[in-house]
Design brief:
The complex is a heterodimer of chains A (105) and B (182). Chain A is mostly helical and 105 residues long. Helix content of chain A is 83%, strand content 0%. Chain A has a domain of 53 residues. Chain A has four helices and no strands. The longest helix of chain A is centred in the middle third of the chain and has 40 residues. Chain A starts with a helix and ends with a helix. The relative contact order of chain A is 0.03. With 182 residues, chain B is mainly alpha-helical. Classes of the chains: A mainly alpha (105), B mainly alpha (182). At the A-B interface, helix 1, helix 2 and helix 3 of A face helix 2, helix 3, helix 5, helix 6 and helix 8 of B.
Amino acid sequence: MDEHLKRYLAPGDDGLAFTEAVLFRASGALARRRQAAAEGPTWSLLEIWARPWVIAALLLLAFAVVVPSRPWSLGPVATADSGLAADLLAASNDSEVVLSVALGN
Amino acid sequence: MEPDAALVARAVAGDREVFGALVMRYQESVRRVTRAVTGNAEDADDAAQDTFLSALDRLETYDPSRPFGPWLMRIASNAAIDLVRRRTVRAAQPLEPFYASPDQSPAAAAEAAEIRRELAAALADLPPRQRAALTLFDVEGYAHAEIAAILRVPEGTVRSDVFHARRALRKVLRVYGPETEG
C-alpha cells in the first residue's frame, strides 16, 4: 500500500519549476533579509553593547544632577554659611567693641 | 550534504541559492503531503508554495537543535488543511499519472489508472487530517509521536487516524494483489 500511495502522490517532476516558482514569490522577502543582514550587525552591536552603557551614563548623569539638591547634601554648604555668618558676627562684635571703646563706654 | 540547520542559518541572511537548496531538498515530501490533503495537484502546489514562503517568514522560530523536516511538515499540513477549509477546493480528480511508462503494457496502464481512480476516491472520503496522518506515517515515515507533534493532536488520535485511513485504503487496494496489502 505504501508504495502505491507514494507513487500516486509523487509530483512526477524534478521539482525545478516548483522551486523556481517559490524563489520568484520569495524574492522580496529574501531581498529584505539580505538588506537586514547587511545593515544588521552595526545596529545589533549597538543594541547589545551600547544600550547598557547609554542607560548607565544617563542614570549617572541624573544621579549627579539630583543628588546635590537633596536636603542631606546641603549640610556642608550650610556649615560654611554658618561659619561665615559667625565670622561676620564676630567682626560685628569687634566693631561694636571698637565703637564702644571710641565712645568711651 | 550540508545539514539542514546550516542551510537555515544561511537562508536567514537571505541567501537565495541556499533557500533554493532547502526547497529542492523538501519539495517532494511537502508536495506529497499537500497532494494527499487537497486531492488536487494545483491546490497542492499552491499550499506547498505557501508552506515554503511561510517557513521563510518564520525561519527565526526554527530551533536548530531539532530536525527541520517535522517543523516544515507542520507548516505544510496546516497550509493544506487551511486551504481545504478556506476554499471550495477543485473537485478531487485523480492526480496525474505517476507510473505510466512507454514500455508499460496496455493492461498494466489500465490497472494503474484504475488504482489512481480508486485511491483518489478513497482519499477524498477521508477527513483532511486523516489524509495528512496517513501520508506522514506510510509515505514519509514519521513515527506516531512525531506526527502528533506535527498535527498538534494527541498520539492516540494519530494512531486512530492512521488506522482508519489505512483500513479505508486497504479496502480499495486489496483487489490488486498481495503487494497492496502492505
